[in-house]
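Exercise 3.2. Students should predict the tertiary structure of the chain below and write it as structure tokens, then compare their answer with the key that follows.

Predict this chain's 3D structure.
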Amino acid sequence: MNFSLEFIINVVVLLAQLYLGLIVILQNPKSFTNRFFLGLVLFMAIQGVVQSFVVTTNISINFDVQSRLSISLVPIQLLFLLLFLTNFPDSKPKIKTGYLGLLFLIILTLTALGNTHLVFEGFKIEDGLAKAQAGPIFPIFTVALILLVLINIALIFIKYRKVSSKNKVQIIIVGIGIALTFLGLLSTQYILPNFYGNAEFLNFISLFTLPLLIATSYAVLGFRIFDVRLVSAEVFTLLTWVLFFVAFFFRPTDSGPEYPIIIIILLIFMGILLTRNITNEVKRRTRLEELAEELKKINIELRKAKEELEKLSKFKSEMLSLASHQIKAPLATIKGFASIITDGLYGEINPKVKETVTKMRSSADDLINLINTLLDLRRVEEGKMEYKFERVKLKNIIAEVIEILQFSAQDKKIELSFKPSTDAEVNVDSQKIKQVVQNLIDNAIKYTPQGYVRVGLEEGSFNDGNRNGAVIFSVIDSGLGIPKDLLPQLFSQEFVRDERFKKQILGTGLGLYIAQKIVTDHGGKIWAESDGEGRGSRFFVKLRKI
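Answer key:
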């Protein structure tokens, strides 16, 4: 059976068109985007058959009729391209049923008119060249097609501006494919035959659809399921189809026994490659399934670990509550009796006994402060820190704390002084701010082996335009100082006290973290300064003044 090169090319192109449409629709049959693409492929294939095969196979049909059939299929192709671009890259339909019906009505009207003499009358021979004869409404038909083309191009630009950066590459690929196809069809199917009488490329219309179909199918599939193995497997499948077609329909009459042997060798080679790629794909998918199972087991373990952590957290909360109610009460009793003894209410006592009892009272205070810190930490972590705001003079709160801690300072022979320069009032929770003040002064006393702890109070500003300004509470000592590398971590929950000081001072290291939380919740600011080790420390708290 002898066929022309033109026929062979069109067969190969037809197989490629159908193959692209098949793999796209099989990827997701429910996707409207994929369905519209399949419709575009089918009508392009039909047009290729109509315009090319009828002539090359010498089927008896009027050439003018064939040309009208080919022209009438163009509006349908543009419709499916429009629907595809409207949806792409999503799967669900994005055009309302009413508009869709109107579009189909317009396209069907154009298709029907394209099959009449009103659009295309036929060809006439002038100077040995075949020139197309336009019908009376050919200009209107042409304008309608141009409008459809422009709408499709406009959709490309609109989509590019609206989609995410990830999908912009897909839009660019589709746009390039459409541009190449439109330029190819415009030049070979319209300009050359109508203006230059050159109809040599009319029967290759299908060939010029490939840029659009290849680019579009890759944009649909390439960013979702394609990898090197899958692409190569699909290419090998297409080549196998073509090879079978050539082997059975185009065997040369004078070919010897080597011809089928060559064909068989090529098929075996491609079969091996295809099998190898599919095997690798199966192994990869199997491994992914194994990883998914492992991930599922890990999630189960994580869930169990989370449940255990929640139980531990609950247990910790219960223990802290126990500490609050069961431990604080005996400590308060010990502290109370120690105070009675040191105050001489039971009569005079030996100085050695008094010193011992005084240390007991101090230790009880430290333990009570430790318990309060742990309880406050729990409230901070659970977001249950509660405040009762009231209008007070910050000077009075500081004075109360100074009176309480004066004994500790005297015991270490440290000068503890308080020189306020303002009577400004603040809107605060008195007990919580008192806790902050006590923490800072107490720390200063503990970290100062000798010298002084000077407490101050003055007015300042938040530099935020608020006329009320601020009050700044300061604690300055001549103690051990703070290393430069510890300053940035000082108020964090993860702060770890310098190993050299741990044995000297009782505490959790969480007092400053809680103090910062309290001050921040009051809309204030807390910070520390130091010139280095052995050069003392300076702590500041800024609160908004009323």
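Discussion points: The longest strand covers residues 451-460. Residues 55-61, 224-229, 500-506 have pLDDT under 50 and may be disordered.
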